[in-house]
Write a structure and sequence with these properties.
It is a single chain. By secondary structure, the protein is mainly α. The chain has nine helices and two strands; from the N terminus they run ααααααααββα. The chain has a two-stranded antiparallel sheet with strand order 1-2.
Length: 180
């Protein structure tokens, strides 16, 4: 009778431990480690998706969504976070994976404008986002597109999309544009 050989890898890691390792790897920027953990059974959370989106790793975002995390959780927070960080590739990827770019009253485009991320604003406006609400200022208040806090470049971007809800030359809030 042969004796069973011990597994050299040791006992399997508990799922919660794998998930905690995954979260730590993403937060620390160890993207290859995060991808390996996902390939070995770590179950990602929406928190992991948001952090991967902020980091701007398109492949990791895809892998997390393919593992079952809904990009629309928390009113599409992942796409809003990616827009705030200025990660155009990640915003595009999340949109392609089904994320709603209009979540939380068009917050993604407002976040991108607030961060002076011109290409993200252009992408979102071209994809149908609207500037129906004021852009939040970094100090917590609200500012319209003509506020002196916006860069000249951002004002030009907004001016080119003036038919999307705001006239950047006006200091008055514009009424929302009705969607058909």
């Amino acid at each position: 009778m042969s004796q069973a050989q011990p597994d050299d890898r040791g006992p399997p890691l508990p799922p919660k431990f794998l998930q905690d390792l995954l979260t730590a790897a993403i937060l620390d920027g160890n993207i290859n480690t995060a991808k390996t953990l996902l390939n070995h059974g770590a179950e990602p959370t929406h928190f992991d998706l948001c952090n991967a989106a902020v980091r701007g790793d398109r492949q990791l975002v895809e892998q997390i969504v393919y593992k079952g995390v809904d990009p629309n959780d928390l009113d599409s927070y992942a796409v809003r976070a990616a827009a705030r960080a200025g990660n155009l590739d990640t915003v595009e990827t999340l949109r392609d994976l089904g994320a709603d770019i209009h979540g939380n009253n068009e917050e993604a485009v407002r976040n991108a404008a607030r961060g002076d991320h011109h290409e993200v604003v252009r992408f979102l406006l071209n994809a149908g986002a609207r500037l129906d609400h004021p852009i939040p200022s970094p100090t917590g208040g609200e500012r319209g597109p003509s506020h002196e806090g916006l860069s000249r470049e951002m004002a030009e971007v907004l001016r080119s999309f003036g038919d999307r809800g705001w006239d950047p030359r006006s200091s008055r809030p514009q009424p929302p544009v009705r969607r058909l």
